[in-house]
Specification:
The complex is a heterodimer of chains A (115) and B (109). Chain A has no helices and 11 strands. Chain A is mainly beta and 115 residues long. Chain B has no helices and 9 strands. The chains are: A mainly beta (115), B mainly beta (109).
Chain lengths: 115, 109
């Protein structure tokens, strides 16, 4: 199994500022993903974090707003830039290996409130 | 779009078995069925997954139909702590995952 640590777990941010969320895994993983969960909604995939190259963003999400880094196989960051109240969400990191049928793991999430 | 369809909500009496259905009629041959649950504001918790055979672990059982177009998650003796949103997803395990809206299970005393 993979243990995922996300920081911060919770934060209150001023609008117009940026916040970086960290995701640390206790073992090397091939795939890392970032999700957003707005209040009362299901999870929406933001992007796939690719090691050594630019992240792959889903429709509706752009690099300028959600820059992602992945310097190695155990760590990734997601920055939420120029925040507005609409960015108030839980942001979740997810990891998987490249083996078919392996378990996909999720972090506990980072709960951001923008005021 | 999500590849699965689940009822939006279900109730279950405490101590009874909770049977949560999921339709995944477009599942491909190398995709597994995964079940997760999310208790308020926490990260999704892995429950179980399977390819085509029925699976059981300490948390639940997964029954997959022979044509693999649907499955049922069974919580054999539901407790109040099982109240959560349950998500059924299909994935090869190494791919990005699209979540549907899930089933909100309410366990009633």
């Amino acid at each position: 199994s993979a243990v995922i640590s996300q920081k911060p777990s919770r934060d209150i941010c001023q609008r117009g500022t940026s916040l970086t969320i960290q995701c640390q895994v206790d073992s090397q993983v091939t795939m890392m993903f970032w999700y957003r969960q707005q209040p009362g909604q299901s999870l929406t995939l933001i992007a796939t974090a690719n090691q050594g190259s630019e992240a792959t963003y889903e429709s509706g999400f752009v690099i300028d707003k959600f820059p992602i880094s992945r310097p190695n196989l155990t760590f990734s960051t997601l920055t939420v830039s120029n925040m507005s109240p609409e960015d108030s969400s839980i942001y979740l990191c997810s990891v998987a290996t490249d083996r078919v049928g392996n378990t996909i793991y999720f972090g506990e999430g980072s709960w951001l409130t923008v005021v | 779009d999500a590849k699965t369809t689940q009822p939006p909500s279900m109730d279950c009496a405490e101590g009874r078995a909770a049977n949560l259905p999921c339709n995944h009629s477009t599942i491909s041959g190398n995709e597994y069925v995964y079940w997760y649950r999310q208790i308020h504001s926490q990260g999704p918790q892995y429950i179980i997954h399977g390819l085509k055979n029925n699976e059981t672990n300490e948390m639940a059982s997964l029954i997959i139909t022979e044509d693999r177009k649907s499955s049922t998650l069974i919580l054999p003796h539901a407790t109040l702590r099982d109240t959560a949103v349950y998500y059924c997803i299909v994935s090869g395990g190494y791919q990005k995952v699209t979540f549907g809206t899930g089933t909100k299970l309410q366990v009633i005393p």
